[in-house]
Amino acid sequence: MRAASAHAWTGVQALSVLFMTALTAAAAQLSFPLPFTPVPFTVADITVLIGGAALGSRLGAMSQVLYLGAGVAGLPVFAFAPELPQGVLRVLGPTGGYLMAYPLAAFVTGLLAERGMDRRYLSSILAMAAGLAVILLGGVLWIARLTGMPIALTTGLYPFIVVDVIKVVAAGLVLPTAWTFLRR
């Protein structure tokens, strides 16, 4: 009986990882190009953070590794970008640093959630902010390697920071509310 329940749990975990991979791909399609930067505005980053917090560090990171693998394989999972086709070139292009930071951001957010930071609103927001910082740092450093830090900050951080803070607060409110609902 234990073996059957262990296999069922493994199946649930695998489906959860695949669901978050698909959800990240769907969220990436909700993107808006900005005329002054090669980095589009997207909601995929928040999906990464919620997925990490909901699935935990290992499974959250795995969902993003699968997402990147699907994108590198050429599946149309990345946000629209007119200058680069889907595939490995997208990961090597201007948004590559953000994309490559997704697994680490999910891991960090998931690790903080495993320590209970997803149970209260303020700590949940802080956990999401830590994951977002990983994504933004990866993206800005990636852009800076070719353009220098001032241009990287101007094109890869400043245009997004206000909206990203709003997204983090909204995402940070989701999990404590969900846990409260599930306890009832």
Give an overview of the whole structure.
The mean pLDDT is 91. By secondary structure, this protein is mainly α. A two-stranded antiparallel sheet has the order 1-2. 41% of the residues are buried. It has helices at residues 2-28, 44-55, 57-72, 88-92, 96-117, 121-147, 149-156, 161-183, and strands at 31-34, 37-42. The longest helix is centred in the first third of the chain and has 27 residues, at 2-28. It has 8 helices and 2 strands. Strand 1 (31-34) and strand 2 (37-42) form a beta hairpin.
How far from one another are the termini?
Answer: 29 Å
Mean pLDDT: 91
Kindly provide the name of the CATH class.
Mainly Alpha
Please work out how many helical segments DSSP would assign. Answer: 8
Q: What would you call the shape?
A: globular
**What is the SS-derived class?**
mainly alpha
Are there runs of 5+ residues with pLDDT below 50, and where?
none
Number of domains: 1
Q: Biggest β-sheet, characterized?
A: 2 strands, antiparallel
CATH topology: Arp2/3 complex 21 kDa subunit ARPC3
- Arrangement of strands in the largest sheet: 1-2
- The count of DSSP E runs of length 2 or more, i.e. the number of strands, is 2
User: Percent of residues in beta strands?
Assistant: 5-15%
Q: Gyration radius, to the nearest Å?
A: 17 Å
- The level of helicity is over 70%
Q: What string gives the helices and strands in order? A: HEEHHHHHHH
